[in-house]
Design goal:
Helix content: 10-25%
Shape: globular
Low-confidence stretches: 1-60
Strand content: 25-35%
């Protein structure tokens, strides 16, 4: 990606507050958006801590009635979480960091990572990608999908009033507790138990009701059995027994074809990691992101299986980068001759968390697993000491309003915008466009004004991070329209 930058300072009076940071730099990229880089590369040198007239009550978290209300310029419907991540993800920092430490990922690698930081009322994420990136599907997902089939099985069980404690007995004769089945599927990557969870989930229900954009999985498709002769499309009847209650589920079959070549399984690293994130971080993420069909015992059981899953491809590299006392909750997978993969949540001894996912082609010399360990070491080495940069999280905290007013076309052919923010209770706001820092303002608030010159028009992801005394108190990201110069 290429970027142009340059920034000038100006002070002006906004109604009720004297704040204006004027930045004339803007990122440009081959993707056609004001896109991502490291914080240092994204920050176009704008002014910091401009002169600000104190508000009458800077500690208030309610709008100032003395100020005229702002027009909210967010476009509806809003973008989905994955779409926002796709616009904000940093595609440069890892590559630059790799060059600095003399590392070249294996040819054909796909890499997705996030550094988890404090956000408003929950975690926020600095997203990164390299190689084939977070959203590519140029790999065979192998056993990484076994968490998804587990979630599908528990979703179906919950829909008929059961949990993982239920015993499932098929008409064909086999029976076992559902929790034991999914534990083996995840912990030791049992193929037959993956098929059993798939059969419980139901072919169509799994693909049309669990693996949906609403649940964080807009593109994942599961269609393939991993055991020859055992179908996931044509499933015998089964009986659920739990707590003295019994229910029979008749045989099911499907002829539906979903969007994946050769009736196979298709996934990308971002969506695979979403499943692990939403399970392992259940206690700290917003309720809207939780899998509400999971009983507490199953949440604990699935998490424990993920945190002890084998093989541990990332383990040696994570310890090398972060030291002893790390916890890795993940789901690996491999197909010799094709791809080796791993993805999950990593936590060091201090409590700092990361998301990491990678797929590397198998070179055929038994080194692919070790290469994933080396890759984990190098990614975490780059991210470990990275300062806070642009973040993304679900909207939370104080109510943030953004009004965007188009101004003149500048002498160098850009469209000048005045962006007015209401963030009650904040003493600083930071603004980002498609993951690129475009300005920040400190002062008493609640109203803050930033000017920025856009080099092109179109839809953008505008994000606002509001803090008070350095602590996040509000975050909002919104879809906005920028008029062309």
């Amino acid at each position: 990606m290429t970027r142009t930058a340059g920034c000038a300072i100006a002070i002006a009076i906004a109604t009720g507050a004297a704040v204006l940071v004027a930045c004339t730099g803007e990122a440009s990229s081959t993707a056609g958006s004001d896109a991502s880089a490291s914080d240092a590369a994204r920050d176009d040198g704008g002014a910091r801590d401009g002169s600000i007239a104190p508000a009458e009550d800077g500690s208030s978290t309610a709008p100032d009635a003395s100020l005229p209300p702002l027009r909210d310029d967010a476009i509806t419907p809003d973008w989905r979480w994955d779409q926002k991540v796709g616009r904000a993800i940093d595609g440069d920092t890892l590559a630059m960091g790799f060059r600095e430490i003399g590392y070249t990922p294996p040819a054909g690698s796909e890499i997705y990572a996030a550094k988890i930081v404090d956000g408003a009322e929950g975690p926020a994420y600095m997203h990164f990608e390299a190689g084939g990136g977070a959203f590519g599907r140029a790999f065979w997902p192998a056993s990484t999908v076994k968490l998804l089939s587990t979630l599908g099985a528990l979703d179906f069980a919950a829909s008929i009033g059961f949990t993982g404690a239920a015993t499932v007995t098929w008409d064909s004769g086999f029976g076992d507790r559902l929790s034991a089945i999914y534990d083996r599927a995840i912990r030791v990557s049992s193929n037959i138990d993956y098929v059993r969870t798939f059969r419980v989930a139901g072919f169509d229900r799994l693909n049309s009701e669990l693996l949906t954009a609403a649940n964080g999985f807009p593109t994942i498709v599961l269609q393939r059995s991993y055991v020859s002769g055992v179908s996931v499309r044509d499933v015998p009847g089964m009986t659920f027994d739990e707590g003295g209650r019994s229910d029979y589920v008749p045989a099911r079959s499907s002829s539906e074809r979903y969007d994946c070549p050769d009736d196979g399984n298709c996934a990308n690293l971002f969506e695979l990691t979403e499943a692990v994130r939403r399970v392992v971080l259940d206690a700290i993420i917003p309720s809207s992101e939780r899998f509400r069909f999971l009983a507490p015992s199953d949440l604990e059981g699935v998490t424990d299986a993920l945190c002890h899953a084998t093989p541990a491809f990332f383990q040696s590299g994570v310890v090398s980068a972060l030291g002893d006392g790390v916890r890795i909750c993940h789901k690996p997978g491999d197909v010799p001759g094709l791809d080796f993969l791993d993805h999950g949540v990593i936590e060091d001894a201090s409590g700092q968390r990361y998301l990491l996912a990678a797929a590397v082609p198998d070179p055929g010399d038994s080194s692919a697993g070790a290469r994933l360990g080396t890759l984990a070491d190098r990614v975490l080495t780059v991210l470990r000491d990275l300062p806070l940069g642009p973040t993304l999280q679900p909207d939370a905290g104080v109510a943030i309003v953004a009004q965007l007013d188009a101004g003149r076309t500048t002498s160098d052919g850009r469209r000048s915008y005045t962006i007015t923010i209401d963030a009650p209770g904040a003493d600083r706001v930071e603004l980002f466009t498609d993951g690129y820092a475009i300005g920040d303002v400190s002062g008493a608030g609640p109203r803050f004004v930033v000017t920025y010159d856009y080099s092109s028009g179109g839809e953008r992801l505008l994000a606002v991070r509001a803090t008070r005394a350095g602590a996040p108190i509000g975050f909002r990201s919104m879809r906005v329209m920028i008029e062309p110069p």
